[in-house]
Specification:
17 strands; 384 residues; 4-stranded antiparallel β-sheet; Aminopeptidase; binds zinc ion; alpha/beta; Alpha-Beta Plaits; elongated
């Protein structure tokens, strides 16, 4: 089948750009533009502050509202330290699967979009199809915001965004949100035989972490969202650095906290509880010894959760196109909540299995890709 060949060819080309999140994605974006521009697509770029990366928005069809976004990220996770059987950036085919970094997460979806684009461009569409390709998803969904906000506020406001993260073409309607950051404690160092004269950053951090454990306990007994695993919010601390010697009161201690919040609950409320504990319960005693002591927080990444759509008719339409009978919820985060917060109904439907993502010898079944292209074509038909 011709379409399968087109998907495979596009995917091989996309895999060949080593767009790990730390690198520029501009070569890949330029390559995509050379495919879409001759089709008459209206191209918009949303560069990052460094000018080394950009989001790409390509609109096929009329510049009107009510269209559909097909969205995916162009960046991939690194391959260092992984045992690959062949060059991760040279795609190879075996046993009905395509191997290479990003085949599942998520250049396979991008290849499907490119493969169906010529047919979409040839159709007399009354509403547009937007291909929205982002950067920096794998480092906390920090790239897509400028593009999502722009399109949500523009005259092009679409009726739906499909985020093509791997769901084995299931309809995923919700996931938790994530908030991740540092807590940095500054103490006052001195000889450990006189601990009352100084401020111990390690022991202060321990009190902060104990409060986080209490928050976690409250989350376990708090609101639930059935269908998620676990169905309640969670918070963890997985890295701590602090202190320099066994007999010096520690001057510095820092740790990373990470929370995963069910849809409908506020990550900022939890963050404020942490800050309040620091300013009200811990800092007064620290500052009494030295005003320079204190506790600082820094947010590293904020991935909004995805709530199920309120529009039941839209869910029914998508399930029918997919030939499925129920929606699913997942535990990983995506860019979908960012589009949803920009006012665009958003769902996650894409080819491949998330279990294959980020792995050595990452691969995707060709049958998943053809099923995805078929689904995207049906959605294009709804824009006639
Ligand atoms: Zn992904």
């Amino acid at each position: 089948m011709n379409l399968t060949n087109d998907i495979t060819r596009h995917l091989a080309d996309l895999v060949a750009f080593p767009t790990v999140s730390s690198a520029s994605n501009l070569d890949l974006i330029a390559h995509v533009e050379t495919i879409l521009q001759p089709l008459g697509a209206h191209i918009r770029r949303f560069p990052d502050a460094s000018g080394q990366k950009a989001n790409l928005l390509a609109t096929i069809g009329p510049e009107t509202s009510g269209g559909i976004i097909f969205s995916g990220h162009t960046d991939v996770v690194p391959t260092q330290g992984q045992a690959w059987s062949s060059d991760p950036f040279v795609m190879r085919e075996a046993d009905g699967r395509l191997f290479g970094r990003g085949t599942t997460d998520m250049k396979g979806f991008l290849a499907c979009c490119l493969a169906i684009a010529p047919a979409a461009a040839a159709m007399p569409l009354t509403r547009p199809i937007h291909l929205a390709f982002s950067y920096d998803e794998e480092v906390g969904c920090t790239g897509v915001g400028s593009m999502a906000e722009w399109i949500g506020q523009s005259d092009l406001k679409p009726r739906l965004a499909i985020i093509g993260e791997p769901t084995t073409m299931d309809f995923v309607a919700a996931h938790k949100g994530g908030l991740v950051g540092w807590c940095r404690v500054t103490g006052k160092p001195g000889h450990s035989s006189q601990p009352d004269r100084y401020v111990n950053a390690v022991m202060t951090a321990a009190e902060m972490i104990a409060e986080i454990s209490r928050i976690r306990e409250d989350m376990r007994n708090g609101p639930t969202f059935e269908g998620l695993d676990p169905p309640y919010s969670t918070i963890t601390v997985n890295i701590v650095h602090g202190g320099v010697a066994g007999n010096i009161v520690a001057e510095n201690c820092e740790f990373i906290w990470e929370m995963r919040i069910i849809p409908g609950e506020s990550d900022m409320a939890v963050f404020e509880r942490m800050q309040r504990f620091a300013t009200e319960k811990l800092e007064p005693a620290m500052k009494a010894i030295d005003p320079a002591c204190g506790i600082a927080f820094e947010i590293k990444a904020n991935i909004p959760g995805l709530r199920p759509n309120e529009d039941a008719a839209l869910d029914t339409e998508l399930l029918k196109l997919l030939g499925r009978n129920q929606v699913r919820y997942v535990s990983y985060g995506t860019e979908a909540g960012i589009f949803q917060n920009a006012g665009i109904p958003s769902v996650i439907i894409g080819p491949g299995d998330i279990a294959d993502a980020h792995q050595p010898d990452e691969s995707i079944a060709i049958s998943e890709l053809t099923a995805c292209a078929d689904f995207l074509q049906k959605l294009v038909e709804t824009c006639r």
